[in-house]
Design a protein that fits this description.
The complex is a heterodimer of chains A (428) and B (305).
Chain A: E1 2-8, E2 13-19, E3 22-27, E4 35-45, E5 47-52, H1 65-74, E6 77-82, H2 93-106, E7 110-113, H3 129-134, E8 141-142, H4 152-161, E9 168-171, E10 184-185, H5 188-193, E11 197-198, H6 200-217, E12 221-223, H7 229-240, E13 245-249, H8 251-255, H9 282-294, E14 299-300, H10 329-338, H11 345-359, E15 377-387, E16 406-416, E17 419-423, E18 426-427
Parallel strand pairs in A: 1-4, 5-6, 6-7, 8-9, 9-12, 10-11, 12-13, 13-14
Antiparallel strand pairs in A: 1-2, 2-3, 4-15, 15-16, 16-17, 17-18
Chain B: H1 13-30, E1 44-49, H2 54-66, E2 70-75, H3 87-96, E3 101-106, H4 111-118, E4 122-128, H5 134-148, E5 155-159, H6 166-177, E6 181-185, E7 201-203, H7 206-209, E8 215-218, H8 224-227, H9 234-241, H10 245-250, E9 256-258, H11 271-274, H12 281-300
Parallel strand pairs in B: 1-2, 1-3, 3-4, 5-6, 5-8, 6-7, 8-9
Helix pairs in contact in B: 1-5, 1-12, 2-12, 3-4, 5-6, 5-12
The chains are: A alpha/beta (428), B alpha/beta (305).
């Protein structure tokens, strides 16, 4: 197969020959029996998400492995990490293998289960991390995401233990006592709205502690969904020491702010903006963008969190936390980072494919688009302008904060080891 | 005026003065032997109470009835709501019954905003979580005006658990609109971290503020706050922030004392202060009916019945 007329990382137009799931040749005027017209789209290495909630098993009304991976393919992803907070929790080899097998069966993208750090996400006893690492799912990323591993001793042990199989602990940094009943960012807006605040310090204190712990035991630490300017400063400091700390930011924390809870086109107190960690202030957004540009923040991860309509059409405090994000991530990153001149397309590829694959220790993903690399390719037209229409999502859920917004760019095609999962923007 | 009354901040100065002036007119009706007006005949007002609040509910009920509206009381306890019905489904039910106004009391901040998306009638916020209670602020302003005249430049001190108080939020917004100068007094733990952005002054020292106050409004302190380490003990709170006889003596002679009720006598306010001639606490209750009549009249009376 020849993919014609694409611009690798936004460079000069070339053709790509794909054979046996790999990139066989890159050049001008390539010919072959089967061709796909790239139409001048940008070619990126297939995107890799380190933070996806697929909800299966347990909440198949919100998302399944099938619909979640379809959503991922539509967003240009060729691999996702499925978070462990399912029901039952992915805290045993059996559950992670089930999720992994479902991913293989539907094959819209690779599915790499994340294992829970503690049994039942309860923060009391380590889950069988080694058994999950040794299973067919080959788990390398462990997280109690949704909950913080707040016990310092347990966190230390987890960081140490996973060194044996080159694992990483992905921490959901949220000091639980400081965020009891928390509803939104603690600040001017929460004070006016009478909603219990989620203070930045509750995130920053855990990040500081965990960076120190990781340094002390010489382990790898990853911080999920960094949301505050203060977190960025702490991580910048930890990295300056040479400590092995990585972190992610979500697309929504790069674009949206907490004042939307008070005033937005969908009315005040609309839980479509309820997410954990919460939307922060404009100053935080600016700090996160700058940190993603200068490498302090390593990657973008979606925290795709599907919820059924009835869990969002409620009063604010009763609503579920989270937003879907796979199908809008690249467009939001273009809006927040590329249109603002902070990142070029090589920088986007680094942060949405190459580095997340490296953190997750995925050999076959996040490779540069070169001869001999697996043909995981995302074609993206940055000149398109699309109004976000949740009813067109492949995801089972519709809880997007971008409904009705016009965002730049469109995923034209996605190839997983040479096989198209999306063509002309539609699932294959 | 807006179609709804959800936040005291939605009211312009003209709106607020119109409500207060209308209440003044209606107060005269309450003094007659026949208290009923035909204004809202054929209109339906639903009292939708998700929290127990007999005082506020009766006040709205009396107000609606004096304007001849049909009143439906819908309390969450023992209804479909306690069986798990969502706010949206409750709203759609009320909508189908043709409610012209829904008076809502809810434990969740913002519930009236959400309700307003789902019903066509006017939504009146009768207290939502720790957010607002605009008719309380209106009746407080009405009570102050009756005692003191215009509120322009008046010094109003609000004392107590501002962080969790919907009464304080609505009062700060409305009193600022009406030109009064508000000072909040509380232990720092019971103020929002962002209180500096509010249109008022903040002090931790009640004794310093009292001599300069025209109005002192005491807020109820929930006993459960003590367990969450907001302050060390009831006794210490009372000593530092309670309005006892000695502090009462430091107030200017014509200054008044207010409390939205229900009071913890002996905690935030001494019994003899609450019962003094300069306390408006009982008037506040009577004025509540009047001000709610004015609100319903202005929200619903404009349209033809």
């Amino acid at each position: 197969m020849i993919i014609k007329n694409v611009r690798i990382l936004g460079g000069e137009p070339v053709d790509i020959r794909v054979a046996d799931g790999e990139i066989a040749e890159i050049g001008q005027g390539l010919e072959g029996p089967e061709t796909v017209d790239g139409g001048g789209a940008i070619a990126l290495p297939g995107l890799v998400d380190l933070h996806t909630h697929l909800r299966e098993p347990g909440r198949e009304d919100a998302e399944t492995v099938q619909t979640g991976t379809q959503s991922a393919a539509r967003g240009g992803y060729t691999a996702v990490h499925a978070m462990a907070n399912t029901s039952p929790v992915a805290d045993t080899a059996g559950v992670v293998e089930q999720v992994w097998r479902l991913g293989r069966e539907f094959a819209h993208c690779d599915v790499h289960p994340v294992g829970a750090v503690t049994v039942g996400l309860e923060g009391k006893q380590l889950a069988e991390l080694g058994a999950m690492a040794d299973s067919a799912a080959r788990v390398r990323v462990f997280s109690d995401d949704g909950k913080c591993v707040d016990d310092a001793v347990l966190m230390r042990r987890a960081l140490e233990y996973v060194k044996a199989f080159d694992g990483v602990i992905a921490q959901h940094a949220q000091e639980p006592r400081l965020t009891s009943g928390a509803q939104m960012n603690e600040g001017v807006i929460s004070g006016r709205l009478g909603l219990t605040g989620w203070p930045a310090v509750a995130e920053e204190a855990i990040i500081a502690r965990d960076c120190l712990l990781a340094a002390h035991v010489g382990s790898r630490l990853h911080i999920c969904h960094v949301s505050t300017a203060g977190s960025v400063e702490i991580i910048r400091w930890a990295k300056s020491k040479g400590w092995n700390v990585t972190c992610e930011v979500t697309p929504h924390h790069l674009l949206l702010t907490d004042d939307l809870v008070e005033e937005s086109p969908v009315g005040a107190y609309n839980p479509i903006y309820k997410v954990n960690p919460p939307l922060r202030t404009r100053a935080d957004v600016e700090a996160l963008r700058a940190a993603l540009a200068d490498g302090t923040i390593d990657i973008v991860a979606t925290d795709h969190a599907p919820h059924p309509v009835e869990d969002k059409e409620t009063e604010w405090s009763a609503a579920a936390m989270g937003m879907v994000g796979l199908e809008t991530a690249l467009s939001v990153v273009q809006e927040a980072m590329v249109e603002t001149g902070l990142l070029d397309w090589a920088g986007v590829a680094e942060r949405m494919s190459v580095v997340p694959a490296r953190i997750g220790r995925l050999g076959g993903q996040g490779q540069p688009l070169e001869v001999g690399a697996p043909a995981n390719i995302t074609l993206y037209d940055p000149s398109a302008r699309t109004e976000v229409d949740p009813s067109a999502f492949a995801s089972k859920s519709r809880n997007t904060p971008y409904e009705g917004m016009t965002l730049p760019g469109r995923v034209v095609a996605t190839f997983l080891r040479g096989r198209a999962t999306v063509l002309e923007g539609k699932l294959v | 005026m807006n179609r709804h009354l959800i936040s005291a901040g939605d009211l312009t100065k003209d709106d607020a003065l119109l409500i207060l002036d209308t209440a003044e007119e209606l107060a005269r009706v309450s003094e007659r032997s026949i208290k009923k007006l035909p204004t809202l005949r054929g209109r339906t007002v639903v009292n939708l109470f998700f929290e127990d609040s007999t005082r506020t509910r009766i006040s709205f009920e009396a107000a609606a009835k004096r304007l001849s509206a049909d009143v439906i009381n819908f309390s969450a306890k023992g209804s479909s709501v306690s069986k798990g019905e969502s706010l949206k489904d409750t709203a759609l039910t009320l909508e189908a019954m043709g409610a012209d106004a829904v008076v809502i009391r809810h434990g969740a901040s913002g519930a009236p905003h959400r309700l307003a998306n789902w019903v066509r009638g006017s939504v009146v916020n009768a207290g939502d979580g720790t957010h607002e209670h605009p008719t309380q602020a209106l009746l407080d302003a009405f009570s102050m005006r009756r005692r003191l005249g215009s509120l322009e430049g008046r010094k109003v001190t609000i004392v107590g658990d501002v962080l969790h108080s919907r009464v304080a939020r609505s009062n700060v917004l409305l009193l600022d609109t009406l030109g009064a100068d508000v000072t909040l007094v509380a232990p720092p733990t019971l103020l929002p971290v962002s209180v500096g952005s509010w249109p008022c002054e903040v002090s931790y020292d009640l004794d310093a503020v009292l001599p300069k106050s025209d109005v002192v409004m005491m807020l109820r302190v929930q006993k459960e706050r003590m367990n969450a380490a907001y302050f060390p003990s009831e006794r210490e709170y009372s000593r530092r922030y309670g309005l006892d006889r000695d502090r009462f003596a430091k107030m200017p002679e014509d200054a008044i004392v207010m409390h939205p009720g229900p009071m913890n006598r002996g905690m935030e306010i001494a019994a003899e202060v609450a019962d003094s001639a300069r306390s408006t606490i009982v008037e506040q209750v009577a004025n509540g009916v009047t001000i709610r009549m004015a609100v319903l009249y202005l929200l619903l009376g404009g349209e033809s019945a």
